[in-house]
Amino acid sequence: MNVVCIYVTSLILVQGVTAEVQHNSVAWVSLDEEAKKQIVKLYGSIQRAMLMLLWSFSGGMDWSVAQELVEPLDAFLSGVWIIYISFVMFGLLNVW
User: Fold this and answer.
1) Which residues span the domain enclosing 44?
2) Is the backbone of residue 95 left (phi > 0), alpha (psi -120 to 50) or beta?
3) Across all residues in the chain, what is the average pLDDT?
4) pLDDT tens digit sequence for 52-78
5) What are the CA-CA distances from residue 73 to residues 21, 32, 83, 88 (Å)?
């Protein structure tokens, strides 16, 4: 179940970031070069996004760092992050 959740969420995030980059959106153009490099590094492939999502709930990476990178691009992607973390932490792992 967790692998399916990670896979679907990574597809949504990578597709959303890719759409912003391909359309050269105002939000993408306004980001500094360091933020762009980080976004491409974390959201550049499905495999990398899946690894980042795994790190985010297992303690390997602070999830807010990855979420804050996509927040200026699209509010929907930011919402996907919040829903994903909430679902995994409280639903799948039952961490209170």
Assistant:
1) 2-92
2) beta
3) 90
4) 999 988 888 888 899 999 999 999 999
5) 9, 12, 17, 23
Write the CB contacts of 6 (distance below 8 Å, at least 6 apart in sequence). Answer: 50, 53, 54
Tokens of 38: 């980080």
* Sign of the dihedral defined by the CA atoms of residues 68, 39, 77, 7, in that order: negative
Give residue 3's region: left, alpha or beta (phi > 0; psi -120 to 50): alpha
Number of domains in the chain: 1
pLDDT in tens, 37-53: 999 999 999 999 999 99
DSSP line for 23-76? TT-HHHHHS-HHHHHHHHHHHSSHHHHHHHHHHHHHTSS-HHHHHHHHTTT-HH
Give the CA diameter of the chain: 41
For residue 49, CA distances in Å to 56, 80, 87 come to: 10, 13, 17
